[in-house]
């Protein structure tokens, strides 16, 4: 069953947009929580061997998540996500930008649009990532965003199986 789940990662340079579509064998409320709850996000929102560590998270319109991806050596790569729109269990939008340890964003950033839907116990997450500049998008891709985000979503898949069995 797992191998039949949809996973698309499409880079559209003319529109400076990345489209990610991924299905998970889990109920929508659980998948929603995995993307919106600090305790669950910190278990998967970084490609291994990095760990995700959230310093601040306030999931509401106008709120933010300030977190670091921490390398095994302890190097911190900070980012800030500002929530601009939330429709519970169906959609949320955020501005994402790299930042320094003092929460100063390094602009330009990117706008992320998350859409959630469920059919027969399979939850589909569609993510549209619009970049402010082609240069930023190309830098993200060069830094291994596709490989890292693919690994991260695979980790989420495994985590959801564990959480579903609780």
Verbal overview:
There is one protein chain. The chain is of the alpha+beta class. It has four helices and eight strands. Strands 1-2-8-7-6-5-4-3 form an eight-stranded antiparallel sheet. The longest helix is centred in the last third of the chain and has 20 residues, at 145-164. The two termini are 20 Å apart.
Note the overall shape. Answer: globular
- Measure the end-to-end span: 20 Å
**Which consecutive residue ranges, at least 5 long each, have pLDDT under 50?**
none
The overall average pLDDT, rounded, is 94
Q: How large is the share of residues in beta strands?
A: 35-45%
Question: Descriptors for this entry?
Answer:
alpha+beta; 4 helices; 45% strand
Quick description:
The chain is 25% helix and 45% strand. By secondary structure, it is α+β, with helices and mostly antiparallel strands.
Topology of this protein?
Elements (H helix, E strand, L loop, with lengths): L6 E6 L4 E8 L3 H9 L1 H4 L9 E7 L6 E7 L5 E12 L3 E9 L5 E15 L2 E10 L2 H9 L2 H20 L2
Antiparallel strand pairs: 1-2, 2-8, 3-4, 4-5, 5-6, 6-7, 7-8
């Amino acid at each position: 069953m797992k191998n039949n789940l949809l996973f698309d990662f499409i880079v559209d340079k003319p529109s400076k947009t990345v489209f990610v579509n991924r299905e998970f064998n889990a109920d929508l409320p659980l998948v929603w929580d995995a993307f919106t709850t600090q305790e669950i996000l910190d278990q998967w929102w970084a490609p291994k061997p990095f760990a995700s560590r959230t310093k601040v998270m306030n999931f509401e319109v106008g709120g933010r998540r300030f977190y670091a991806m921490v390398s095994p050596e302890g190097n911190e790569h900070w980012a800030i996500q500002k929530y601009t729109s939330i429709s519970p269990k169906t959609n949320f939008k955020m501005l994402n930008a790299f930042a320094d340890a003092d929460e100063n964003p390094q602009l330009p950033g990117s706008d992320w649009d998350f859409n959630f839907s469920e059919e027969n116990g399979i939850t589909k997450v569609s993510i549209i990532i619009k970049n402010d500049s082609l240069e930023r998008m190309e830098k993200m891709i060069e830094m291994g965003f596709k490989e890292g985000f693919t690994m991260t979503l695979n980790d989420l898949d495994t985590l959801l199986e564990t959480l579903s069995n609780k």
